[in-house]
Amino acid sequence: MARKESVTIDMILDTSFAMMREEGFQNITARKVAAKVGCSTQPIFRVYKNMEELWDAVYDKAVQYFQDYLSLFPRTGKRPFSNLGVAYISFAKEEKKLFELLFLSGGMGKRSMYEILNGDNGNVVYEINLARVQGCEEPEDIFNKMWIFIHGAACLTLTNNYDLSNVQTLELLEQTYDGFTKM
User: Which pTM value belongs to this model?
Assistant: First the structure.
C-alpha cells in the first residue's frame, strides 16, 4: 500500500500565502514555510521545482485574492471611479503586505498595476464606460487624474497617515470626480 502524502500542495501554498500576508514576500523561504507546515523542505521541492515557482503561485493567489476582494466590496457610490477607489484604499488598509506586493513591487514582472486592477472583470473599463455614459467627455483622462489621487491615498495608509473612514473616502472621491469633470 502506498504511503499517503501528509503535506499537500494546498497546505504549502496556503501557508506561504498566510506568511506573505503577515510578514511580507521577502520572508517566504523554504525553511520558514517548512517550519510553519511542520515538515522538512523536501515536500516543498517535491511539488515546486524551486522557490521562484512557489513565489509565482503565491503571487497568483494574491492577485486572485484582490480580485475577489474587489468584486465583493459594496458598491455604494454614484460617481465613476469612487467605488473602485474606496475598495482599493480599503484593501491597502486591511492588507498592507498584499498591497505592497501587488501595487508597489512592480508586479514581479508578471502583471502591471492596471492589469491587476482591471482584472478579468474589466473593472477599470467598466468605470470608464460608466463615466462616458454619465456624460464625461474624456473618461480616460479623468481616470488617470483620479488614479493618482486614489493610489496616493492608498499609499498613505501604509504609513498610517490616512485615517478617513470609507464613508469619508467615498465623499472625498465623489467630490474629486465632480471637481475634475467640471474643469
Answer: 0.91
